[in-house]
Amino acid sequence: MKITGEIKISDNGFVFNSRTGDSFNLNPFGLELLKNIETGKDFDQIKNEVLDRFDIDDLTFEKDFYEFCALLKHHQIISQDDPLDFK
Amino acid sequence: MEKLAYEKPVISKITAGVPNKFGLPTKLKTISAIDGIAVEKLMQEYGSPVFVISEKTIRETYADAKQAFETRYPKVQFAWSYKTNYLDAVCSIFHDEGSWAEVVSAFEFEKALSLGVNGSNIIFNGPEKSADDLKLAINNNACIHIDHFDELYLLIKVTRELNKKARVAIRINLDAGIYPIWDRFGFNYENGEAWNAINRIMLAENLDLIGLHTHIGTYIMSANAYAIAASKLANLYMATHRKFDHWLKYIDLGGGFASKNTLKGAYMPGTETCPSFDEYAEAISNALISSEIPHENLPVLFLETGRALIDDAGYLLTTVLANKRSTHGRRTMVIDAGVNLLFTSFWYNLGIYPTRDLSSHVEESTIYGPLCMNIDVIRDAINFPQVKTGEKLVIERVGAYNMTQWMQFITFRPNVVLIDLDGQPHIIRKKEELASLQNFEQNPKR
């Protein structure tokens, strides 16, 4: 899972996709997650950090995280390196 | 170390378009309590979903309407439109405030009688009246509003059989500038049908013509349309006097005042665009007072306002069942109240609000009901914050029609609770159960 090359993310949560011309707004936590994905952290790393800092249980976060990733994929903001990475 | 408050991650696409001249609200409205009782508490006690009706709002709204008309016109009488909400407790409040009953079926007629309404204070409207229904109305001295010639001749026949007089009015359809014209009910004004009906009634021995009635439509957003209707009825009122030397007793302008709900497709919210009671009253009273009718012979003005008197008093409390994403990434939400309970969701963008402050980040969402039916859409587009399953929501302005046009479908219809003037909740219609429904069924033995 990595952020596609055409994506620019500003520090205030504005996202621009220069390939499609689409722009997006992130809420603060969405911005934080996207920055974490950008640095190459995997789900478990991100989850552990979030559970340490935020008042949230692991299942709710997992559900929200994957829903968020599905949206990022839908908007062509992230892509998977290997479509068979579940191997 | 205390942990930080969590907020679901959200990304929303920025779409260019015509800017909204109102901008975005800085804070989403919340409804945490109804008449001083916490929504959470009401749902704990009476389940979810649950309809809640505020007696205080009913009486205050009625007082507003009454004041608007009585300060402008000398003789005003409201008649509660049963079909809008015929729960006994609701009708009783309107009757306690002085409303007559306006009914459109024998069922509603009998309901009004059972609530202690004097038969002579019942207006019997509607296109469906059997001979037995007419007998019921005549025997109770009700005001029968004749809808068509077949009904007129049936009524003449029934009065002969009973050898009794019937008090009648005719329903008149007319062009008040509202299109399409509602011409399926009553006799037409412009083509002379209404005048013909008046002439026939005046010749009938057992019919006592006492009024003229029109109902120009529903959710009428132009007060001036009522002025046109009132002027036309005033013309017939005077024509009847001139020809027959007979003063009618009342002019009934029906219902149709808009509530503050927002119609689907409307650019501006209903709270901004719908006329107030004062505007309707001003238009109607001016038209009648400035007509040819001499002041000493002004008719009683009857109003059958339903929607505008009860919509604001009704709430539906509901719970979020699930959050989903459509295949196009659109946010969707499932709540436990469906279109079978919210008939008005087909024509209104109902206001749906959380009970507490949530994230200020909103996303355009679709809200579905719980029915296993594709049409079960409560709001197809609403800016709404992220909510977890189990979150309580309040749907406002649902007092009109939903509790009469609701449908028992797939599951039971919920409790209806009335909060009285002392702030005490009472169940006024119990949640259905299997036995209450099976009671109507018969299963033939095989």
Explained architecture:
- The complex is a heterodimer of chains A (87) and B (446).
- With 87 residues, chain A is of the alpha+beta class.
- Helices cover 45% and strands 17% of the residues of chain A.
- Chain A has one domain (2-79).
- Chain A has three helices and five strands.
- In chain A, the strands form two sheets. Chain A has a three-stranded antiparallel sheet with strand order 2-3-4. A two-stranded antiparallel sheet of chain A has the order 1-5.
- Chain B has two domains: 33-52 and 314-432, Lyase, Ornithine Decarboxylase, Chain A, domain 1 (Beta Barrel), CATH 2.40.37; 55-311, Alanine racemase (TIM Barrel), CATH 3.20.20.
- Chain B is α/β, with parallel strands linked by helices and 446 residues long.
- In chain B, strands 4, 14, 15, 16, 17, 18, 19, 20 and 21 form a nine-stranded mixed sheet that branches.
- Chain B is globular, with a radius of gyration of 25 Å.
- Chain B has helices spanning 39-46, 55-70, 88-96, 106-114, 131-139, 149-162, 193-203, 223-244, 270-273, 277-289, 307-310, 402-405, 434-438; strands at residues 11-13, 33-34, 37-38, 50-54, 76-81, 100-103, 122-124, 143-146, 166-173, 187-188, 207-214, 250-252, 300-303, 314-325, 331-335, 352-354, 362-368, 377-385, 392-396, 416-419, 425-429.
- The A-B interface holds A 15, 22-30, 32-34, 53-56, 60-61, 64-65, 67-68, 70-72, 74-75, 77 and B 3-14, 323, 325, 328-329, 359, 361, 388.
